[in-house]
What does this fold into?
Amino acid sequence: MSAGKTQRQRTRWTTQAGFSLIELLIVVAIILIIAAIAIPNFMRSRIAANESAAVASCRNIVTAQVVYASTYGTGYSDTLNALGPAPGGGPATANNAALIDDVLAAGSKHGYRFEYTPVDSNGDGINDAFTLKAWPLNPGFTGERYFFTDQSGVVRADRTGRADVNDPPIG
It folds into this structure.
């Protein structure tokens, strides 16, 4: 009698263990629906974060240029690289002012490329103005807006192409 009871218990345990194929398919479908909702929101958040970082980098460069001009008395720097640190961590000089990090000084950060152009409007060898443009390395993926600023510090944006002085300022 005990052998028959053990057989019944064993049968009951084996039939109740595990999930059916339908249950697993329902769980997979729910996960796919959640992923379909979450992934586009994640991408929009990533683009917004990259754009915010690009604007912050533009503002950092403008601030670094003002500090550079007032520290060295030679106008704005000739290159973006001159605002970066010296290789090996040496002392700050006019060629390596250590005002921005080395990644930004190289001209690319947070999915954006930065193009710095000094302007010598008087022809006296002193850069009295500059322009800075930033654009996404992979438009639509790393960012959607293009940015522009100059020595005024006003950051302007455009969604259709390279921003310039005629584009509206960001809020």
